[in-house]
TrEMBL record:
tRNA processing recorded as keyword: no
Enzyme class, spelled out: hydrolase
Keyword Hydrolase recorded: yes
UniProt xrefs under PROSITE patterns: RIBONUCLEASE_II (PS01175), S1 (PS50126)
Residue span(s) of domain S1 motif: 643-724
Family: Belongs to the RNR ribonuclease family. RNase R subfamily.
Subcellular location: Cytoplasm
Protein name: Ribonuclease R
Gene: rnr
Length: 729
């Protein structure tokens, strides 16, 4: 084809696309050829004739329709239009995730048409490809994921721009002077997008909250909450409503409940816990079995449907645990007082009571509302002391009472008996194929100013596992009690699907670099080899990396009314019953359980499915906020250690740099390829490595390296490292 003809055909293609673009932007509207010419900014006879010809061709191809003589509109071929969710990249383009299609659809920046990350949109696929990603464009926005964003105000004379901190946000927001409120230049703010006029480069918005000066502790913590749309305090009317609730224990209410105040009951929680939502009771029976009660704060007694308190708890759906604070789901008068099972106080509880034989088989079960009295409160460390010494002496260094003391014999016996039972129950779960994720938790020692002065790791010991096993038992048995009925009842299950096979294959090739392996033959071999892997890496340099990667291969657990079982725990039925102070699904489970105990008909499934979806969404947001607050604190911690050299493990390799996780404090940062001195490094994707062109020196995933902090950005929560070299020890 001659260059001239090639240009002509390209022009024709561009014209077709331009016409389709005009019609598609207003899908319900018709245009004549003059209106199309005006939109294209042409008015000469040649151009108009080209448009008329092109319109005829597009009708022949059924891409457009002639609704009435000379009036054209887009043809809505159902196989070209789809509803999708936008997944932005940090590079400015996006992928549209379409349920009906196996592959995502590529959306270039010019085809986004104001869509943001997470928006529900309609897309039109204009270029279908066989072996590569099809290309499409956003035709309309069906539902914005969010309209509020966190950013920094850059003020000009009569207007300003808010530069958004989210790397997936490709535009700043224009703000007129009268929509800035009290914000000053350089402030971190929350901006609400109000509109995006057709010819404007940026959307228009107004500042709705000033968070403070970037880099300051409270500004950054509040901006993490604001970024995920999470509240940081209760509205006054909610606090007032909660304060008015009668939280006293009434004789007529006690009569409606099973009275278990005379049964030995105690709580085991973290030393710094403020709310105790679960307690255990223990009683030996004459037949040699034991009766164990799992008693949960009766939140649904106080939080009634249809109240503003219930609406607020539902909206929040979960408490959020940030590094330096908890943002509770319920006001303090309930979470720390009325619903907290504090020692030497009578409380309303919702209980699962089991008679268990010597083989840890449940031979009898009872569920219902109770009144209980906690005889003692222990921190995990105190209970651990009892388990390890098999005695009741708690030394001053461990005691939360600030003095050494002796635990009653009957409690010591209860703790030791339950620990033995928990171990049997745990090993039975493992034999069933449960997966043991004992991931190390990073914790910070903070001073009074919330400055991190140290890092420590929290690991689960026997006392933690004792509580975990009995909570799992209650959650599983409650789910079975409803789920196994012949007549189906609407209920809330905690669901966990099997891992994705592709992810398991890539995990296997990754761990093989460290000399480990997985057996992917069937479900049972996958579980047991995963457990073996997690056990083998304990205490090794690659532990945190492999723990993290193994967790990423797992599906995400979610709430749903359709039970599919829980893969990770190897349970056919599982629910959340044990933490209603901090999780709304547990409140709903209590209500539904009581409803069915009262013999009432099944609740509406659609209503609860929607509530499950909301709860899962809020759980994801809160997990992200928690993760961001840890990242923020890690960066803050590293700012004070900029002169120190650290040993780290290469935890990720990309085409622009390598990620390194410091062994002693789990802080992760990046070394950019362009910053590595002495050679030019290329990315070797197959071997998860970078290789020097001249020296052929390779840095591979899992290698130990020595690094120093190059740059610590509190606002972006990002660390840059300088590579000193390999750790040759």
């Amino acid at each position: 084809m001659s260059k001239k003809n090639k240009n002509k055909s390209q022009h024709q293609g561009d014209l077709a696309k331009s016409i389709i673009d005009i019609l598609r932007k207003e899908p319900g509207k018709t245009f004549n050829h003059k209106q199309i010419a005006a939109k294209l900014g042409v008015n000469d006879a040649t151009s108009r004739n080209s448009i008329i010809k092109k319109l005829a061709q597009l009708i022949a191809k059924k891409q457009i329709e002639e609704e009435e003589r000379g009036k054209f509109k887009i043809s809505r071929k159902s196989n070209d239009y789809y509803n999708a969710v936008i997944d932005m990249t940090t590079k400015g383009y996006a992928y549209a995730l379409v349920d009906e299609l196996e592959d995502d659809v590529f959306i270039s920046p010019k085809d986004l048409n104001t869509a943001f990350n997470g928006d529900e949109v309609e897309i039109y696929i204009y270029n279908r490809k066989r072996n590569k990603k099809s290309e499409g464009e956003v035709t309309q926005i069906l539902k914005r994921k969010r309209t509020e964003f966190v950013g920094v105000l850059d003020m000009q004379k009569d207007f300003g721009f808010v530069v958004i901190g989210d790397p997936k946000m490709y535009t700043d927001v224009f703000v007129q002077k009268n929509k800035m409120g009290d914000a000053k230049n350089g402030d971190k703010v929350v901006v609400e997008i109000e509109e995006w006029p057709e010819k404007a480069d940026s959307p228009f918005g107004k500042i709705i909250q000033v968070l403070g000066t970037p880099g300051e502790h409270h500004t950054e913590i509040h901006s993490i909450l604001a970024q995920y749309g999470l509240p940081h305090e209760f509205p006054k009317e909610i606090e007032d409503f909660a304060d008015e609730i009668d939280t006293s224990i009434q004789p007529d209410e006690i009569k409606k409940r099973r009275d278990m105040r005379d049964v030995l009951t105690f709580t085991i929680d973290p030393a710094d816990a403020k709310d105790f939502d679960d307690a255990l009771s223990f009683r030996k029976l004459e037949n040699g079995n034991v009766e164990i009660g799992i008693h949960i704060a009766d939140v649904s007694h106080y939080v009634q449907p249809g109240t503003i308190l219930d609406d607020e708890a539902y909206e929040r759906a979960t408490s959020v645990y940030l590094v330096d604070r908890v943002v509770p789901m319920l006001p303090e008068v309930l979470s720390n007082n009325a619903c907290s099972l504090r020692p030497n106080e009578e409380k309303y509880t919702f209980s699962a009571v089991f008679e268990i034989d010597k083989t840890t088989k449940v031979v009898n079960e009872w569920f219902g509302r109770t009144v209980t009295y906690s005889d003692a409160r222990f921190a995990y460390e105190e209970a651990q002391q009892i388990i390890e010494t098999e005695k009741g002496e708690v030394p001053e260094g461990i005691s939360i009472q600030d003095k050494a003391y002796t635990v009653k014999d009957e409690i010591v016996e209860a703790v030791l008996t339950m620990n033995k039972m928990a171990k049997k129950m745990r090993s039975a779960r493992m034999r069933q194929g449960a997966i043991s994720f004992d991931k190390v938790e990073v914790k910070f020692q903070l001073d009074e100013e919330n400055e991190p002065v140290g890092v420590y790791f929290k690991t689960a010991k026997d006392a933690n596992k004792l509580i975990e096993e009995f909570m799992l038992l209650a959650n599983r048995k409650v789910a079975e009690f409803i789920g196994k009925r012949e007549e189906k009842k609407t209920f809330i299950y905690r669901c966990h699907d099997e891992p994705d096979e592709e992810k398991l294959v890539s995990l296997n090739s990754l761990v093989s670099r460290f000399g480990h392996g997985l057996n992917l033959k069937n479900r049972k071999t996958v579980s047991s080899s995963l457990n073996q892997l997690l056990q083998d890496v304990q205490g090794k340099k690659e532990q945190n990396l492999i723990d993290t990667l193994a967790i990423r291969t797992m599906s995400k657990a979610y709430y749903g009314t359709e039970n599919i079982g829980h893969y990770g725990l190897a349970f056919d039925y599982y629910s959340h019953f044990t933490s209603p102070i901090r999780r709304y699904p547990d409140v709903m489970v209590h209500r539904l359980l009581q409803r069915y105990l009262d013999g009432q008909p099944s609740a509406k499934e659609e209503e609860y499915e929607e509530k499950c979806h909301h709860s899962s969404e809020m759980e994801n947001l809160s997990t992200n906020a928690e993760r961001d607050s840890i990242k923020y604190m890690q960066v803050k911690f590293m700012i004070d250690h900029q002169d120190k050299e650290f040993v780290g493990v290469i935890s990720g390799v990309t085409d622009f740099g390598i990620f390194v996780e410091i062994i002693e404090n789990k802080c992760e940062g990046m070394i950019r390829l362009r910053d590595i001195k002495g050679d030019h490094y290329d990315f070797d994707a197959e071997n998860y490595a970078i290789v020097g062109r001249k020296t052929k020196k390779a840095y591979q995933l899992g290698d130990e390296v020595i690094v120093k902090v190059k740059n610590a950005d509190l606002v972006k929560r990002h660390l840059d490292f300088t590579l000193i070299g390999k750790n040759e020890e």
